[in-house]
Amino acid sequence: MKKTLLALLLATASHAATAQETIVFGIALEPYPPFSFKSGKGDWSGFEPELIRAVCERLQAQCPLNEMAWDGLIPALKAQQVDVVLNSLSITPERRQVVDFSEPYFFTPALWVADRSLDVQPTPEGLKGLIIGVQGSTTHSAYVKAHYGKTSTVRYYNDQDDLLADLRSGRVDILLADQLAVEPLLDLPDNAMLASKGVAPQDPLLGEGVGAAVRKGNDALRERLNQTLQALRDDGTYDAIRSRYFKTDIAARP
User: Fold this and answer.
1) What is the distance between the alpha carbons of residues 27 and 134, in angstroms, rounded to a whole number?
2) CATH number, domain with residue 103
3) What residue stretch is flagged as signal peptide (predicted)?
């Protein structure tokens, strides 16, 4: 009996020592290079999947990725299907009403892009009558709808690839997207006819940087993420990951 009890206690202690916390991260199926995309082998690659792995290694947690459509990320978080969304989610007053955010882990301006031959100022008056393309359920779509929706036609897209394809073909006249995501694509041969048309001014609808979202009131997890992200910056891990995808310090406040 004593041997059986001792064996049970040892097994329990061993399990407790090796068991890992599980934190489920939500990630959008739509590719969004260089932030998140799948490699040729089907593995998640990019700045944010690498950052998630670094965070989870520091937390000594298992972190499965729950894949879903971009516009399903916040509903999945609220429904407890995921614990964290670290996937280019801008911090906005509207989103703060339904989820809590970590401190921003990167900042990116919104960039207007159009055919090189299009000579316009990207103001509501300057784009009057034109077709503007944006990715749906984003800060860019909210911004364009609010400021340009009455004077321009706005078309919404599920992913950046389709949006760029329609810009190249002339089905939209101009697009608004994350500068960090779209600017490198302008150097590709397929996009040689496209050019930057300026950065959108700062606006609450465009967010206060990008943070990791957790369920409302989950202060413990939010603070652990803050501490871990700061530790990764302090020891150089964040910059080592960032430098593989971006040339500038994207964590610096504008």
Assistant:
1) 20
2) 3.40.190.10
3) 1-19
In a domain, 133, yes or no: yes
Q: Same domain, yes or no, for 116 and 194?
A: yes
In a domain, 4, yes or no: no
- State the amino acid at position 131 in one-letter form: I
Query: Within 10 Å of residue 65's Cβ, how many Cβ atoms?
Result: 16
Quick: pLDDT tens for 44-99: 999 999 999 999 999 999 999 999 999 999 999 999 999 999 999 999 999 999 99
Our count of domains for the chain comes to 2
- Residue-range definition of the domain harbouring residue 238: 25-107+208-243
Which residue, 176, 198, 180, 33, is CA-closest to 108?
Answer: 180
> Residue 123 domain-assigned?
yes
- Rounded Cα–Cα distance for residues 90 and 141 (Å): 12
CA dihedral 193, 194, 196, 200 (to 10 degrees): 150
Q: Which amino acid makes up residue 146?
A: A
Whether residue 18 lies inside any domain: the answer is: no
Q: Are 215 and 99 in contact (CB under 8 A)?
A: yes
Per-residue pLDDT tens digits for 213-245: 999 999 999 999 999 999 999 999 999 999 999
